[in-house]
Each structure stands twice: as structure tokens, then as C-alpha cells.
Amino acid sequence: MGINAVITGDLVKSRKIINDDIAPVIKSLKETFSEIKHELLNGKGTFEIFRGDSFQGQIPRPELALLVSIIIRARLRSYEPLFVSIGSRKQDKPILHSYSDARIAIGIGSVSYNAKRIAESQGEAFEKSGHAFDEMQKENERLAIATPWENINNELEVECKLADAIISRWTASTAEAMYHHLLYGSNQKELAAQLKISQPGVYKRLTVYGNAGTLQVLLNRYAELITKAK
């Protein structure tokens, strides 16, 4: 049935989410899946949330799987929890907890059986995604890719570590700018109007703090490798 990508992920430290903060996180995740399908996948692809804090997605264009994964993480990292109380005082600012992120493993390969629910589907892409996700949890990593091609896996391992090092430094404001830039291709002028900040401020969020140029090089290389291999 051709080469597909399957992503398997979960929210980081979701059990430490305070009170009802989990609801807007899950809502934003569902909205992100819908926007990705509409903007990047021409309405194709399937995403599901299960066990409350885990998710899977089947992407028919595997060359876009890394971009999809980074967009998901950008949206999660842009989420700021509600105000929380410490004793009788409220914090002056929302506290951005480390759980506002996700571990995501991408598996590339064939799909032998498509069921109505992703969890019941089978094939190489599902196996590789699941195995990579299990291994990633052991290593405390947040981004991994497994393909049928060993030489490509070796290169992508390095690229994942570089991408993760960049993403893990994003603040909520940087992640929000990167989300719109990566998903919608918004330029600096458009982002300045949308985020209600100056264009120099957008430049700092994308270029200085977001390392958008470096990430785009990694995304282009990933897409090139997968497109040629499949």
C-alpha cells in the first residue's frame, strides 16, 4: 500500500498537570491535528488520541512527517497553563511547565492493513514507530525516526538530536511564532500583525531564538532523503 509515516507520541510528564490544565492542552492538540490535515495533507491522514495523553497519526506523505512532528511540538510548547495558586497567593505570571511538550517517534514503511482505528492497523511503519517510541522512552529523548534504510537512519539520528536541542530551548512566545511560520508559511510582516509585535520582534523569535533557518535545512534534508528512498 505504498510507503507511509506513522507517528507515535505522548505528552511529557502529563501526570503532573495541575487540576484542569489538561483540557486546553488536549483541545489544542486536536485543533493542531485538524489544521495539519487541512493545510499540509490535503485532508488526508488520520490522527487519534488515546489513554488521555498519547496519540498516533498516519501520514500518507512520509516526507512531511518530520515537519508535522515539529509543528505538533511547537503548538504544545506555545501553551501556557492557567494561573495556579501557591498558598493564598496567585502567581503574577502563568507557569510554563516542562510537560508542555511531547515525545514523538516517526516510523517509515509499508502499511499492510488499514483499520478504522489507527490502533488496530498494522504494518512496517506502525512497528517501527512503536519500537522507536519504546526505545526513546528509555533514552529520555523527545524525537526519533526509524526507516527501513539503515544508512538513512544513521544520518537522521544526528538530525533528530540537533532538532531536539533547538526545540527544547523554545519559550512559549518563540514556539507560537514557529508554529505559524512552519504550518502556514507566515512571513515576518504577517506574523507581526497576527502576534501584535514589531517585525524586529518576529525576527528575533524566528531567527535568533527559534533557529528557523537551521530547522529548515534539517527539514529539507529529511524530505530529500525520504523522497529519494521511497
What topology emerges from the helices and strands here?
Layout: E1 3-11, H1 22-39, E2 46-50, E3 54-59, H2 65-77, E4 85-86, E5 89-90, E6 102-110, H3 124-139, E7 143-146, H4 150-167, H5 172-184, H6 188-195, H7 199-209, H8 212-229
Parallel strand pairs: 6-7
Antiparallel strand pairs: 1-3, 1-6, 2-3, 4-5
Helix pairs in contact: 1-2, 2-5, 4-8, 5-7, 6-7
What does this entry look like structurally?
There is one protein chain. With 230 residues, the chain is of the alpha+beta class. It has one domain (3-229): 2-Layer Sandwich (Alpha-Beta Plaits). It is 50% helix and 16% strand. The chain is built from eight helices and seven strands, in the order βαββαβββαβααααα. Helix 5 packs across helix 7 (199-209) and helix 6 (188-195) packs across helix 7 (199-209). The radius of gyration is 18 Å and the shape is globular. The two termini are 12 Å apart. The model is unreliable at 82-99 (pLDDT under 50).
Brief descriptors of the model:
230 residues; alpha+beta; Alpha-Beta Plaits; two-stranded antiparallel ribbon; 8 helices; globular
